[in-house]
Design goal:
A mainly alpha (473), B mainly alpha (324), C mainly alpha (105), A: 473 residues, mainly alpha, two-stranded antiparallel sheet, 19 helices, C: mainly alpha, Helix Hairpins, 79% helix, 0% strand
C-alpha cells in the first residue's frame, strides 16, 4: 500500500506528465497483488513491530488477497483506459491533472483498508476512499457529489462514534483482539449498530442508496467505474470484519437478517428501477444498487450454513465479479455514449455495427452481472443459491433468481437497442487501449467462472469461520 | 471528583453549540462555533490533554472557523446569506424525538463504561526506547505512525480534491484573494503579516522541537505556520502562489514523502515503519519537521480554496504577483 | 459522577444536538457546521472515557488529534464544494436569463 502513495506523490510532483505514471504503476501493483496472493497463509505484519493493542496489524487474509488483486486489475485497466481517453470535461485542465493523484489516493486507501484489522485505521482509510470518490464524482456533477459528500460524512461519523465507544469499552480497536473480549452489553451493541448503519450508508444498501445513482451516473466513465467497483466495496469488507470476525459471539444469527432483508429488497428495488431508466448510465448505476443487495443478502446465508465455505466463497466471488464486470460496463458505456447520438437508451442504435468490440464488452459484463454461465457472476450466485436452498431459505433463493431474471430484462433492453438500426455514429470506432480495457475486464469476469476452485481456496485463507471458536453454529 | 469548573464549562460548551447551530444569522453562528471550539479547548485542558487542546483550538476552532467565515463571505457575494429556511414542524418533531432517543441511548452506553486510562500502562514502558517524553507524540509517530502517515495523505488529498474543483480554463491558476476589501485593514494586515510570518515560523519550529517532550507537535506547529501564511496573504505581504509552482509542489509533498521514505527505510531494519534502535528520536524529529512545513502550506491553501483566477499565459506578467 | 463521565456525557449531548441540526437545517454550510459539532462530541466521548484517576490516556488523545485533522481536511473540501456549486448556479442563471434559454434542472 505504500507504493500507490508513492505514486500519488510522484503524480503531484510530475504535474501534467502524471498521466504516464500509470504505465509503471499498473504492472507494479498487479505484481504486488500477485505476491500478496502467494504469501504463506498465516502471514501478518505488525506495523513498526509495535505490539497490539497499541500497534496496527496488517494481515492478508483471503478477503484482502482477492480484493487487492481485483482492485489492481480494475484500477490498472481503468487507468490505462483513462490514459487513452481523457476523463475530464473538455478543456478542464484542473480535472485532467488532479484525476491522477486522486485515483492513487483511492487505490492506496482501498488497499490499506482491505489489509488492516484495526478499526480506527479503517476509519482513516475509509476517509481516504470517500475523499477521492467524492472528488471524482464532482468531476461530473457537483450537486450530486455534494449530496454524496454530506451523506458520506454522516456515515463516517456514525462509524467513528462506534469506534469511540469500543475504545472506551475495550481499550483496543483491533478486530482480532475484540473477538476474544467482546461482550454482548449495551455499549457494544450500540457501537456495532452505529458502525453498521454508517457503513451501510457508504455501501449504499437499500434504503440508504439515494446518493448513489445520481453520483455514479453523472461522473465521467472511468470515475464511475472506480466508484461502483471499489468505493462501495470497502464498506462491505469492513462489515465482514465486524460481523464475522470481531463480534460473531455478539451478533446472533437472527440479527444478520437485518442485513439480509434490506439486501433482498435492494435486489428487487434496484432491478425494477434499472428497468425504468431511460439513460444508459443511470441503468448501470441502479444495477449497482441491486448487485450490492446480493452482497448483504449473503450475510445470513454464510452464518446459517453448516459449512460456510461455499456461501463465503460465493459472496467473495460475487463481489470480485461485480468489481470487474461493473468497471467494464461503465467504461464500455462511456465509449458507447461518446459515439451515440444521445445519452438515452434509444439513441444507441447502430452501435453494434460501428463499435462491435465495445458492445461485446458490455454484453460480456452483462452476462456476468446477470449470473449466466460461464462467468464469475454465475459461480458466485450459484454457490449462494446452493447455500440458500440447503438451508431452506427459499425466500432468499427466490429473490436471487428473480434478480437474475430482471437483470436479464434490463440488460437485454440496452443491448437490443445497440443492435437496432440507427443513424451513423458521431465518432468513428477506434481500436486500442480504450476499447481493450473494458473488453479485458469483462473477459476476466467471464474467465473467473473457470477458475472457480482456485478462487474458492483463496477466499478461504484465514477466513473467520475457519478459526477455532468461530461463529458457525 | 467533579469540580464545579468542569460542570460549568460543559454547560457553556452546550450553550455555545446550541447557539452556533440554531441562530438564524450565519455569521453569528460561525462566531459561536469558534467560541465553542475555544471552550472545547478548555475542556481538553480540564482533561489534562494539552496536546489535544492545542490541536482543537488551532484546527477545530481556528482553521475551521476561518474556512467557514470565508465560505460565508463568498456565498454572500453571490447573494446567498446562508440563513436557514424553516423546515416543517413534523420533520422537526420527528427529528427531535429521534435525536432525544439517540442521546439517551448513547448516554446510557457512555455511563456503562468506566473511564480509565487503560492503555497508558501499555504506552509508558515503551517510551524510554523512543527517547522522547511526550506520550501522545509517541503514539502518533511511533506506535500508530501508520495512521498518521495515512492521515497526512488525507490532508494532501483534500487539497488535491479542492484543486479539482477549479472551473475550466483557470488551471494552472491561483486561488481567489483572501483579501479584506477594507483598505486600512489591508494595510494593517500587510505590515502585521510581514512581521508575523517570521515570528510564526520560529514559534512553529519551537513547537515541533518541544513536541517531543512537552505538548506540541507537527500538526499544531503546522497550523501556526498556516496562520502566519494566511495573515500575510490577507495583507498582501505574500501573494498566493500559482498551483503548478514546482517549489510549492515540493513543499506540499515534502512531509508525506519524508515520512514514507523513512517508513520504507525501516524495511532495512526489519519492516515498514520500524525505527532503528537508538535513532527513533532522530527519525521522529525528521518526520515532524518536514511534516510541519507541508501541513502549514497545505492548510493555508486549503483555506484559500480552488483556483478561480486564471493565469493568462506562460508570460503571465499582468498579475499582482510581483511581491511574492 | 467522575470527571470523565461529565465530559463524555457532554459529548453525547453534542452529538445529538448536531444530528438534530443536521436533519432540520436546510443550508449546506450550516449542515457542515453541524457535522463539525457532532465530530467534536465524538472526540469528547473518546477523551472523557479515557480519563483515568490522574491522567488521560494518550492513546485516545492521539486518535482525537488524527480525527481533528481529518475533520478539518474534509470540512475544507466541503466548504469549497459548497462555494463552487453556488458559483456554478449563479453562472448558469446568468447564462440562461438573457436569451430566455432552456429550463434548468
Amino acid at each position: 500500500m505504500a507504493v500507490p502513495l508513492g505514486f500519488m506523490l510522484a503524480a503531484l510532483l510530475a504535474g501534467r506528465a502524471a498521466r504516464w505514471l500509470i504505465l509503471p504503476a499498473a504492472p507494479a501493483m498487479a505484481g504486488l497483488a500477485l505476491w500478496l496472493a502467494l504469501v504463506p497463509a498465516d502471514a501478518a505484519y505488525l506495523v513498526g513491530h509495535w505490539d497490539l493493542p497499541l500497534g496496527i496489524l496488517l494481515r492478508p487474509d483471503g478477503v484482502a488477497r482477492l480484493m487487492v488483486a481485483a482492485t489492481a486489475l480494475v484500477i490498472g485497466a481503468v487507468g490505462l483506459h483513462a490514459l487513452a481517453d481523457p476523463p475530464e470535461k473538455a478543456g478542464n485542465a484542473a480535472q485532467a491533472e488532479t484525476f491522477w493523484p486522486l485515483i492513487y489516493l483511492l487505490w492506496a486507501g482501498a488497499n490499506a483498508g482491505f489489509l488492516t484489522t484495526d478499526l480506527f485505521n479503517l476509519y482513516v482509510t475509509l476517509e481516504m476512499v470517500s475523499l477521492a470518490a467524492v472528488a471524482l464524482a464532482a468531476m461530473g456533477s457537483l450537486e450530486a457529489a455534494l449530496r454524496y459528500f454530506m451523506i458520506a460524512l454522516v456515515g463516517s461519523l456514525a462509524y467513528l462514534l462506534g469506534v469511540a465507544l469500543l475504545v472506551g469499552r475495550y481499550n483496543t480497536v483491533d478486530v482480532t483482539l475484540l473477538s476474544q473480549v467482546a461482550q454482548p452489553d449495551l455499549a457494544t451493541m450500540l457501537a456495532l449498530g452505529l458502525m453498521t448503519a454508517g457503513l451501510l450508508i457508504k455501501a449504499a444498501l437499500f434504503p440508504m442508496h439515494g446518493w448513489l445513482p445520481p453520483a455514479h451516473a453523472a461522473a465521467p466513465a472511468p470515475a464511475s467505474a472506480l466508484l461502483s467497483a471499489i468505493a462501495v466495496k470497502l464498506g462491505f469488507v469492513i462489515l465482514l470484519r465486524l460481523w464475522f470476525e470481531a463480534f460473531p459471539a455478539v451478533s446472533g444469527q437472527t440479527a444478520l437478517h437485518v442485513l439480509g432483508g434490506p439486501g433482498a429488497l435492494a435486489v428487487i428495488y434496484g432491478s425494477v428501477q434499472a428497468m425504468r431508466q431511460q439513460r444508459l448510465k443511470a441503468l448501470v448505476a441502479y444495477s449497482t444498487v441491486a448487485q450490492v443487495g446480493y452482497l448483504f443478502l449473503a450475510f445470513p446465508l454464510v452464518a446459517g450454513a453448516p459449512d460456510p465455505s461455499g456461501a463465503w466463497a460465493g459472496m467473495m466471488l460475487h463481489a470480485v465479479a461485480h468489481m470487474l464486470a461493473k468497471a467494464a460496463m461503465f467504461l464500455a458505456a462511456g465509449l458507447m455514449l461518446k459515439a451515440a447520438a444521445g445519452d438515452r437508451i434509444g439513441d444507441l442504435g447502430g452501435l453494434a455495427q460501428s463499435m462491435p468490440m465495445t458492445v461485446t464488452a458490455f454484453g460480456l459484463a452483462a452476462v456476468s452481472l446477470m449470473g449466466l454461465p460461464p462467468s464469475g457472476g454465475f459461480t458466485g450466485k450459484f454457490l449462494l443459491l446452493n447455500a440458500a436452498i440447503a438451508q431452506g431459505a427459499f425466500l432468499y433463493a427466490g429473490v436471487m433468481i428473480l434478480g437474475g431474471l430482471l437483470a436479464a430484462v434490463y440488460f437485454f433492453r440496452a443491448l437490443s437497442a445497440c443492435f437496432a438500426a440507427g443513424p451513423a455514429p458521431r465518432a468513428p470506432a477506434t481500436l486500442g487501449v480504450r476499447t481493450a480495457a473494458p473488453l479485458v475486464l469483462a473477459g476476466l469476469a467471464i474467465v473467473m467462472g473457470f477458475g472457480g476452485s482456485a478462487l474458492h481456496n483463496l477466499s478461504a485463507i484465514a477466513a473467520p469461520w475457519a478459526a477455532p471458536g468461530a461463529a458457525a453454529p | 471528583m467533579t469540580g464545579a469548573f468542569d460542570i460549568i464549562l460543559c454547560l457553556m460548551i452546550l450553550g455555545a453549540a446550541g447557539i452556533a447551530l440554531f441562530v438564524r444569522d450565519a455569521l453569528a453562528a460561525i462566531a459561536f462555533f469558534i467560541a465553542f471550539g475555544n471552550l472545547l479547548g478548555l475542556a481538553w485542558l480540564g482533561l489534562d490533554a494539552v496536546n489535544v487542546a492545542l490541536a482543537e483550538i488551532a484546527l477545530g476552532a481556528g482553521v475551521t472557523g476561518v474556512l467557514l467565515i470565508l465560505a460565508r463571505a463568498r456565498l454572500l457575494a453571490l447573494g446567498d446569506d446562508a440563513t436557514c429556511a424553516d423546515t416543517s414542524a413534523w420533520l422537526r418533531a420527528g427529528a427531535l424525538a429521534a435525536c432525544a432517543g439517540f442521546v439517551l441511548l448513547l448516554a446510557a452506553a457512555v455511563l456503562s463504561i468506566p473511564p480509565e486510562s487503560g492503555l497508558d500502562r501499555a504506552v509508558a514502558p515503551l517510551m524510554p526506547g523512543l527517547g522522547i517524553e511526550n506520550r501522545v507524540t509517541g503514539v502518533l509517530l511511533a506506535f500508530r505512525a501508520y495512521d498518521t502517515l495515512l492521515e497526512s495523505f488525507v490532508l494532501l488529498g483534500a487539497l488535491v480534491a479542492v484543486w479539482s474543483l477549479a472551473p475550466a480554463g483557470v488551471w494552472p491558476g491561483r486561488p481567489a484573494d483572501l483579501g479584506v476589501a477594507d483598505v486600512p485593514m489591508r494595510r494593517v494586515a500587510r505590515s502585521f503579516g510581514r512581521f508575523l510570518l517570521p515570528v510564526a515560523l520560529v514559534m512553529a519550529a519551537y513547537l515541533v522541537w518541544a513536541g517531543s517532550d512537552v505538548p506540541g507537535g507537527a500538526f499544531q506547529a503546522g497550523t501556526v505556520l498556516a496562520g502566519g501564511l494566511m495573515v500575510s496573504a490577507i495583507g498582501g505581504a505574500i501573494g498566493l502562489p500559482r498551483s503548478d509552482l514546482p517549489g510549492l509542489r515540493v513543499a506540499l509533498v515534502l512531509g508525506p514523502l519524508v515520512f514514507l521514505l523513512i517508513g520504507l527505510a525501516g524495511m532495512g531494519f526489519g519492516g515498514f515503519l520500524v525505527y532503528p534502535e537508538g535513532s527513533a528520536k532522530a527519525a521522529i524529529l525528521a518526520i515532524e519537521y518536514s511534516l510541519f512545513l507541508s501541513i502549514g502550506a497545505t492548510l493555508a491553501l486549503l483555506v484559500a480554496g480552488p483556483n478561480v483566477i486564471g493565469w493568462p499565459d506562460p508570460a503571465g506578467g499582468t498579475d499582482r504577483h510581483s511581491d511574492c | 459522577m467522575v470527571t470523565g463521565h461529565v465530559y463524555a456525557l457532554t459529548g453525547a449531548v453534542l452529538a445529538g444536538l448536531g444530528l438534530f441540526a443536521f436533519i432540520t437545517l436546510r443550508h449546506t454550510l450550516r449542515q457542515l457546521l453541524a457535522i463539525n459539532v457532532v465530530g467534536a462530541g465524538i472526540f469528547l466521548i473518546l477523551g472523557g472515557l479515557g480519563r483515568g484517576a490522574d491522567a488521560t490516556d494518550p492513546f485516545p488523545q492521539a486518535l482525537v488529534i488524527t480525527g481533528i485533522v481529518v475533520a478539518v481536511a474534509l470540512t475544507a473540501f466541503g466548504a469549497a464544494m459548497i462555494v463552487r456549486l453556488a458559483e456554478a448556479r449563479v453562472a448558469t442563471k446568468a447564462a440562461t436569463r438573457p436569451d430566455g434559454g432552456k429550463p434548468g434542472p
